[in-house]
């Protein structure tokens, strides 16, 4: 089938029109005067008992000025009786091209009647001059369920020795596959009243999640959750097989890893390698002694050869960090499969993924070749 150049151009124009329409549909909602709003408020499903409140920086809206001139923003809210939205900003100027993040808390008093409601927050753009000139508005809504039942939960973070440790603690209400932030603390401790249900507590240090626990809580129940935080852990642990260039047999397995210490220094730490063969313990070797173990990352490696030489078997490798003479943290296990002729296959390499990438490259090249051949035919 021969396609004319005119038909090709018509097809490209139709495709460009569809892409333009899709980009307009996916764009954030913009309103008169260049005002727009985004954020997380509209995704919330608040469930709050009477006489309690929710205040977390993870619930917010962002107000944008997409115009080429400055205007003012007035934030307004719509709530049922006994409920108040707590805004970090209520009235502020917004220069051309600027944006402002406004966090939103929810306060539910004893006067609120249990039931389901809709909350609304609106940003109104205006200018002052010979009177107030309204330029447009943008808003978001969220769902609120006020409950008459209440439970109490306390989450604290501790070291392996049981001492308190500062950390970012987040508490989520779980609903099916979704989770909604209900609590936030940067001190390593959070205590609050919540609605009965299922929850998830998480602890972060230096932006990395180090502990979490899921739990359920019933009406009138008090629950204490303790999250043990290990601030030293392994990163980038892998086993790299190295072969003898003359015999093509496995010479040694290079153990590569990084020790990451997020907080304080320790007088001494040891890295121990534990090796199994066919699932049975084979070897235990101290790879490194770090005296002291400073804060930060330390990249290390070690060339491992079993005492009895390599055999056809499945080898397992695991790292263990000892602090103060006691095991502190372990790594995940890495596998090294040896077949006939001691050919190794490292468990950390995803050959299926590599093959898929290679196949995709081949298909892309074929598409380009076919396109070029057809283009020559038309001309």
Q: Can you describe this structure in just a few lines?
A:
With 379 residues, this protein is mainly beta.
Task: Describe the structure in your own words.
This protein is mostly beta strands and 379 residues long. It has 3 domains: 30-147, Immunoglobulin-like; 151-228, Sandwich (Immunoglobulin-like); 232-352, Immunoglobulin-like. Helix content is 13%, strand content 56%. It contains 2 helices and 27 strands. It has helices at 5-26, 351-378; strands spanning 30-31, 35-39, 45-49, 52-54, 60-65, 71-78, 83-87, 91-94, 99-108, 115-129, 131-147, 151-158, 168-175, 178-185, 189-194, 197-205, 208-217, 222-228, 232-243, 250-261, 269-277, 280-290, 296-304, 314-323, 326-330, 334-338, 344-346. The strands form 6 sheets. Strands 1, 2, 4, 5, 7 and 9 form a 6-stranded antiparallel sheet that branches. A hairpin with a 1-residue loop joins strand 10 and strand 11. The model is unreliable at 15-32 and 347-355 (pLDDT under 50).
Which structural class should the secondary elements be placed in?
Answer: mainly beta
Number of helices: 2
Q: The CATH topology of the largest domain, please?
A: Immunoglobulin-like
Radius of gyration equals 30 Å
Tell me the total number of β-strands. Answer: 27
What's the rounded overall pLDDT mean?
A: 86
């Amino acid at each position: 089938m021969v396609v004319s150049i005119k038909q090709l151009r018509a097809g490209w124009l139709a495709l460009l029109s569809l892409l333009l329409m899709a980009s307009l549909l996916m764009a954030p909602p913009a309103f008169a005067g260049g005002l727009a709003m985004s954020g997380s408020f509209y995704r919330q499903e608040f469930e709050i008992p009477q006489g309690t409140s929710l205040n977390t920086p993870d619930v917010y809206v962002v107000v944008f000025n997409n115009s080429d001139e400055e205007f003012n923003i007035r934030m307004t809210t719509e709530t049922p009786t006994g409920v108040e939205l707590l805004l970090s900003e209520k009235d502020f100027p917004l220069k051309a091209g600027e944006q402002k993040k406004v966090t939103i808390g929810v306060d539910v008093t004893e006067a609120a009647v249990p039931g389901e409601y809709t909350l609304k927050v609106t940003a109104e753009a205006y200018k002052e001059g010979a009177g107030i000139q309204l330029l447009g508005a943008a808003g978001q809504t969220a769902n609120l369920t006020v409950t008459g039942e209440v439970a109490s939960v306390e989450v604290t973070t501790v070291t392996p020795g049981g001492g308190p440790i500062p950390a970012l603690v987040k508490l989520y209400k779980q609903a099916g596959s979704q989770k909604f932030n209900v609590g936030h603390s940067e001190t390593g401790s959070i205590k609050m009243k919540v609605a009965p249900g299922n929850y998830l507590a998480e602890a972060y240090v230096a932006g990395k999640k180090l502990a979490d626990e899921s739990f359920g809580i019933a009406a009138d129940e008090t629950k204490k959750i303790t999250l043990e935080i290990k601030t030293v852990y392994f990163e980038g642990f892998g086993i790299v097989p190295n072969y003898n260039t003359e015999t093509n047999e496995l010479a040694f397995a290079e153990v590569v890893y990084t020790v990451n210490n997020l907080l304080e220094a320790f007088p001494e730490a040891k890295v121990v390698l534990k090796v199994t063969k066919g699932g049975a313990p084979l070897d235990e070797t101290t790879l490194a002694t770090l005296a002291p173990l400073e804060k930060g990352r330390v990249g290390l490696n070690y060339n491992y050869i079993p005492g009895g030489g390599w055999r056809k078997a499945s080898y397992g490798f695991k790292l263990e960090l000892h602090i103060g003479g006691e095991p502190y943290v372990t790594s995940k296990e890495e596998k090294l499969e040896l077949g006939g002729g001691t050919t190794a296959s490292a468990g950390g390499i995803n050959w299926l993924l590599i093959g898929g990438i290679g196949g995709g490259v081949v298909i892309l090249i074929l598409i380009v070749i076919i396109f070029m051949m057809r283009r020559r035919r038309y001309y």
